[in-house]
Amino acid sequence: TALRQQEIKRTKTVCTYCGVGCSFEMWTRDRQLLKVQPVVDAPVNGISTCVKGKFAWDFINSPQRLTTPLIRENDRFRPASWEEALTLVASRLLQTRDQYGPDSIGFIGSSKGSNEEAYLTQKIARAIIGTNSVDNSSRYCQNPATEGLFRTVGYGGDAGTIDDLQQAELVIIVGSNTAENHPVIASRLKAAKKHYGQKWLVVDPRRHEMAERADLHLRIHPGSDLVWASAMARYMFDHGYEDAGFLAERVNQVEAYRQSLTPFTLDYAAQITGIQEETLREAAELIGKAGSVCIMWAMGITQHSHGADTSTALSNLLLVTGNYGRPGTGGYPMRGHNNVQGASDFGCLKNFYPGYESVSDPQIREKWAKAWGVPAERLSLKVGQDNFMMVELARKEVIRAMYVIGEETAFSDADAENVHQGFTNLDFLVVQDLFLSRTAQFADVVLPGCPSVEKEGSFVNTERRIQRFYPVMAPLGDSRPDWWILTQLAARMGHDWGYQHPQEIMAEVAGIAESFAGVSYSRLEGWKSQIWPVNADGSSTPLLYTERFKSPDGRATLYPLSWQPPAEEADAEYDLLLNNGRMLEHFQSTNQTGQGGRTTSLSPDWFVEISPQLASARSLQEGDWVKLISRRGEVEVPVVVTDRVQGKVLFISIHQGKDGINKLTGEHHDPSVNTPAYKELAVRLETLDRP
Ligand code: SF4
């Protein structure tokens, strides 16, 4: 027994599945995962995890893992050495830059990779290629939320921590299926509800678990959230629930904003949202009377053609009621991928260096150029292209080469046909991934990266909390940590950065970006964590805005808005709305959770949820097959009849299906941030005659 125990290695890691950032020990013997063991020291989750954190690790040893670089030759992939593959990638990227200019190349960084890897991705784009065209998957999810926070309070992150969410008297949960998408946060809220009498106001078209447990559920017409939120703000002013002292002391543009609320009466809101006026009044009274309010929101808000405006409306409502800067208050966009916050924080954005430092500011450029040892002119002052525009410009042959790390763009981007056309038109595509993904099928060179358990690094969770993870096992085959690949690639492009360990990369960032000044691997050792902005002495900022908002005068801004209807609504021809989102058991394109392991067996197949009313009107029974047809394409799925959806609104997961949901989605997007309007999708339904 003693010998057996010695063979077992216990390693701290951080879950790679969602922005909650649970950490736990992995018990392994060589490559065999024996146990995922939560420990009380874990700062976010303590002894809790969800099914993905506990069980969704079969992919690590999947025979489908890439174990060697691949080069396309005669339309087939052949194995290659690292030397050959990296030399080819370096020369083709430099050639493209020299022939077509730096902005002919686009980079999509990984929201699953580490902070250090995100940093190196943007460093290659900026310091070697000379473009700001670098982005990450926050474009598809939380960019509109970030924009709403920039407009009103200043930082692109959650206002406080999960502790604050637990302390709130009232939590408003909008367009967030928290129990399935951020399960451990949902558990902590359930505890707050049970033990401290916390109240929940849930606003969602779908009656998911949080809605079932809510004190009040507003079952809203999709795409009309700006209207209820603005009507609530107006009600606060009309009924003396506004925090007049807070507004006078800390907020600009109060009167202009108040004027802009004129149209948003409860009566008007009832017409647009489909919620009864009396219920809206009940919601407003809940908000007005609560001593502390947090608002959590996710993709039910952001994946619309006006997601940034709706996010702004939510933050406005918090400002009107003085719900920022105190424990138990603030805005909480729920980050989806494990490190989508970190990928943005560490610079995979078209307009910011790490720490949200503007690329257009010549002094900031000077600072980064000096730190990186490159001429200032190499760093572009021009805002780059985002994911959405990169693909558009690839289609038009303006972008000639792309480098995609760990993102399943060919499956997860809206309007898949368009994306595929863009990739086909590229002269050169590099994909760095664990698997020969659908995106990799379009690549010229595929580089095998490693999952977090085979490397070292750090992630940032939805609370802005930075945590380290450690190597649980060695890289599989010839796969390599992404930071190693990027360092080697840079060397072959004439930039010998010489990093031997990710801690050197973090030390470099801390020396340049103010927000991370006091971050270091020693301060993050083991179960320790830091929450940015981190001061030079290493102290964290768990709760933002206690003294100042992030703006030149330290004040917040109320931002006037008007409501625009969704870009695509149901009509006579396409008479149903297809809502879509995530499921507890799966992650994104299921490249990790659908590899035949335990999470696959828990949820093996795609289905569409339809309401009992629709089932009865169309004579459909559970298990019947239907064809869903949008203006772009069609898919075939079996139906599940459930009152989680109502009327003519259906729901389908984004994870499954051969071609997935994006065969149906279209070009609609939020013009202020270029986030696709995945949730604005009209379809019609045909019954299929099959078993
Ligand atoms: Fe992982 Fe999120 Fe589940 Fe925690 S809640 S175990 S971070 S998927």
Automatic annotation (TrEMBL):
Q: Where is the signal peptide?
A: none
Q: Which UniProt keywords apply?
A: 2Fe-2S, 4Fe-4S, Iron, Iron-sulfur, Metal-binding, Molybdenum, Oxidoreductase
Give the shown range, full length included: 254 to 944 of 990
Provide the protein name: Formate dehydrogenase subunit alpha
| GO MF terms, alphabetically ordered | formate dehydrogenase (NAD+) activity
Class of enzymatic activity (EC top level): oxidoreductase
User: Which residue spans traverse the membrane?
Assistant: none
* Enzyme Commission no: 1.17.1.9
Q: Which residues form the 4Fe-4S Mo/W bis-MGD-type domain?
A: 8-64
Which cofactors are required for activity?
Mo-bis(molybdopterin guanine dinucleotide)
Q: Its family?
A: Belongs to the complex I 75 kDa subunit family.
The answer to whether the entry has keyword Iron-sulfur is: yes
Which species does this protein come from? Kosakonia sacchari
